Amino acid sequence: MIDVLPSLIGTFAVAGGMLAWLSIRTTKIDQNSPERLVAELRLAQFSALLLAFVAGAFIGFSATSEANVNTALDTALALGFFVVAAIAPTREPREALTILMLAFAAHALVDIMHRPYGLPVEIAPAWYLIGCAVFNLFVGVLCYIPILKR
Prior knowledge:
Blueprint: H1 5-27, H2 34-64, H3 72-87, H4 93-112, H5 126-148
Helix pairs in contact: 1-2, 1-5, 2-3, 2-4, 2-5, 3-4, 4-5
């Protein structure tokens, strides 16, 4: 799994950097401009795609888990995040960004719960769970920055 670490760090850095750029760019557009609405929608769409990507990792971990652990709850939670990712961009952009911020915070909580708090510890390496929780909180904040700047 350590062979994957550079790829994951690169992927998260590029995705996080792109999302940060979109978020900051959105805040610089006049609040009453139609361009602001479009920028918020693009940010919500990219964030939803990223949520689906992050949630999909747990389906992959569940499918490839060598430990005899019950991964049904992890799979169900991942599917729940997929549903949120699919529905959020259909909402008004400010509402979508708020929903996505809450979903990323919830995903960070799920990552933290993989320690000895109820979800299987063996499903993913500890470094991944900690890194994913931090990344999810970072992305959640990026989703909400344009809302705060209104």
